[in-house]
Design brief:
Number of strands: 20
Helix content: 25-40%
Strand order of the largest sheet: 7-8-6-9-10-11-12-13-14
Structural class: alpha/beta
Largest sheet: 9 strands, mixed
CATH class of the largest domain: Alpha Beta
Number of helices: 20
Distance between the termini: 57 Å
CATH superfamily of the largest domain: Mur-like, catalytic domain
Strand content: 15-25%
Oligomer: single chain
Length: 499
């Protein structure tokens, strides 16, 4: 069977009769099952829970489903099916009972990304892949690259962890020239085959340690984005870990390391010179000249001037330039590009106080970048910390924090961090338990603490699922509470949040 699996590197290979167990029936798991059934494989899906609509559709397609039950029952179901290969959805921990059993049985395990790579030739010439990962900024960078490519006339799609499964993208009948693929550390953990045109790890900071087990394992997973890169390994000059990951990667011969950062760029880098974003990597005379991409002022006018967003712009520009997107196209794209909701989004401004929703700041690294964009902050913080200590963040940003409003069902770690590292900062706890009552209390406490010139910043440094459906739900609740408190009136509702 090993020989047969090695031959399955094309949509047009013989997949008929292959027995595949798919773990999970979320968006990713369903896309994997759907793909494999279309290829002619026999598919068993095992999931802790199953959306009824997906379950019904799986049955219509001809797949089998084991949903719910305990781990032992699921392991027995997979063993009875005797799969040739197991395809795992990103959320499954490598030490889960199903994956331990697969290892003991010698059953090969594929991730959905490698499966997509194997069948990427369905519609003809395979698209090139741009692979994007990092602790923070992935989605913004993916959207930027995709917009730049589309502005240049390239058939490009944003896919992967951004929402559209890669397997759906490779099966699109129209086909694409480029897939811009957002990859989580979970997905990268399972990659063995992907060979992207260009790749980037935007940054690495402690996150998902409860899944990976250690900071070293998490960073190693992120570093897999550079493996087998063909043309450009883009790394962050302001984050030494990303450079180390490039140096450690086994890339294709001829692939270049391209740095980006917020200072003056060296040859083969992108950076900033006197307020001008410059490319010194993708031109012939890199030693003496540079290409102008845009200016910090133009980014400010577009609401893109927070330092971490400028960093994303530079990374995206490097990836786009690797595919010969011209500077004028990049500049034109940036003039009209807007950030997604809940990413340093200005909600309102009244009486000299700005209210900013950065609910997407779901870990300390993202919150650090957000806090660094403003001088005086009433910080709304707390939620699911995922095993990460925010003490260093509190200590390093204490000079910018006027007061803190702490939410979350388990606030002890946040309160302890302030007690240890910034005891002089006023800290207010949110006691409301019902979801609909949390943000009104947050906003009342923040309004009482804020002074003219302050920013009330929702940048929780934590996941949201203890009290909200997701970070978007948390952000919408915050915005609604702000507008209700202020009577729906803002000084300038269309103004971008400045750096």
């Amino acid at each position: 069977m090993t020989d047969r699996l090695e031959e399955l590197t094309s949509w047009h290979a013989d997949w008929s009769g292959l027995r595949v167990a798919v773990l999970g029936l979320g968006v990713t798991g369903f896309a994997a099952a759907d793909t494999l059934i279309e290829l002619g494989a026999e598919v068993l899906v095992v999931a802790d829970r199953a959306d009824p609509q997906r379950a019904n559709l799986l049955d219509v397609l001809g797949g089998s489903l084991v949903a719910g039950g305990d781990a032992d029952g699921q392991v027995r179901a997979v063993a009875g099916f005797a799969p040739d290969v197991l395809v795992v959805s990103p959320g499954y921990h490598p030490d889960s009972p199903l994956l331990r059993a697969a290892a003991e049985a010698g059953t090969p395990v594929w991730g959905d990304i490698d499966l997509a790579w194997r069948v990427r030739d369905k519609t003809g010439t395979p698209a090139e892949w741009i692979a994007v990962t990092g602790t923070n900024g992935k989605t913004t960078t993916v959207r930027l690259v995709t917009a730049m490519l589309q502005e240049a006339g390239t058939r490009a799609i944003a896919c992967g962890n951004i929402g559209v499964p890669v397997l759906d993208a490779v099966r699109d009948p129209a086909g694409f020239d480029v897939l811009v693929v957002e990859l989580s550390s979970y997905q990268l953990h399972w990659t063995e085959l992907v060979s992207p045109w260009a790749s980037v790890c935007l940054n690495v900071a402690d996150d998902h340690l409860d899944w990976h087990g250690s900071a070293e394992a998490y960073a190693a997973a992120k570093g897999r984005v550079y493996e087998r890169t063909q043309v450009a390994c883009v790394y962050n000059l302001d984050d030494p870990t990303t450079e180390r990951l490039v140096r450690d990667a086994d890339v294709r011969e001829g692939a270049r390391a391209i740095g980006f950062g917020l200072s003056i760029p060296g040859p083969s880098d992108l950076g900033i010179v006197e307020g001008i974003l410059c490319d010194r990597a993708f031109l012939e005379d890199r030693q003496r000249t540079a290409l102008e991409l845009t200016t910090v002022q133009e980014l400010h006018d577009a609401g893109l001037s927070a330092p971490h967003v400028v960093s994303n712009v530079l990374a995206a520009s490097a990836l786009a330039r690797s595919l010969d997107v011209t500077p004028d196209v990049i500049r034109r794209t940036l003039q009209t590009f807007r950030l997604d909701p809940h990413r340093i989004e200005l909600v309102a401004e009244q009486d000299g106080v700005r209210w900013v929703d950065d609910s997407k700041a779901t870990n300390p690294h993202a919150a650090d970048a957000s806090l660094g964009a403003f001088d005086s902050v009433v910080w709304v913080v707390g939620g699911l910390l995922k095993g990460v200590d925010i003490g260093d963040l509190v200590r390093s940003r204490a000079g910018r924090i006027r007061a803190a409003v702490v939410l979350g069902t388990d606030r002890s770690a946040v309160l302890d961090a302030f007690a240890r590292h910034a005891p002089a900062i006023p800290v207010h706890q949110v006691t409301a338990g019902e979801t609909g009552q949390v943000m009104p209390e947050v906003v009342r406490l923040a309004a009482a603490a804020a002074q003219p010139g302050d920013v009330v910043l929702l940048a929780p440094a934590a996941a949201s699922m203890d009290q909200f459906d997701d970070y978007g739900h948390r952000g919408r609740e915050f915005q609604s509470a702000v507008l209700q408190l202020l009577g729906g009136v803002t000084d300038d509702p269309d103004a971008p949040a400045p750096a």
